[in-house]
Amino acid sequence: MSSHHIVKEKQEPALYIHELGGFNEEHLGQLLEWSPTVVVWAEAYEKVASLGIKIDVVVGDLASLGELQENLKVIPQRRKGLDDALEFLVKEKYPAVNVISKLSKFDDLTCYLPDINLVLFTERSKHYPIKSGFSVWKPAGTVFLIDIIAYFEADNLMQQENGDFVVVEDGLVTFRFQAPYLFVGELL
Question: How many CA atoms lie less than 13 Å away from 57 in the CB half-sphere?
Answer without folding.
Answer: 22
